[in-house]
Amino acid sequence: MAVNYDKLWGILNERGMMKTELIREAKISTNAMAKLGRNEDVRVEILVKICKALDCKIDDVIEY
C-alpha cells in the first residue's frame, strides 16, 4: 500500500510553515521528516505528533 503526504505539504504551504518549523514544533526527527519527504511509511506516533502540532486529523495529512 502506497502512502502520499501531499496533503501535509499543502497544509505547510498554506500556513507558510517550513519543514524545519514542523520538526521543532512536532518534536519529530529529521530522519522522520526525510521519510515523509520520500513518501515512505512512518510510525503512527509521528503522524499523531504532526497532527497535534498542526491541529488537524491524520486523514488531513496522508493519502493511501
The strand count comes to: 0
The helix-and-strand class reads mainly alpha
Radius of gyration: 10 Å
- Beta-strand proportion: under 5%
Helix tally equals 4
Helical residue percent band: 55-70%
What overall form do the CA principal axes indicate? globular
N-to-C order of helices and strands? HHHH
Mean pLDDT: 96
Looking at this protein, list some descriptive labels:
mainly alpha; 64 residues; globular
Structure summary:
By secondary structure, the protein is mainly alpha-helical. It has four helices and no strands.
Describe the structure.
The structure is a single chain. By secondary structure, the protein is mainly α. Helix content is 58%, strand content 0%. The longest helix is centred in the C-terminal third of the chain and has 11 residues. The mean pLDDT is 96.
Question: Topology of this structure?
Answer:
Blueprint (H helix, E strand, L loop, with lengths): L5 H10 L3 H8 L3 H8 L6 H11 L10
Helix pairs in contact: 2-4
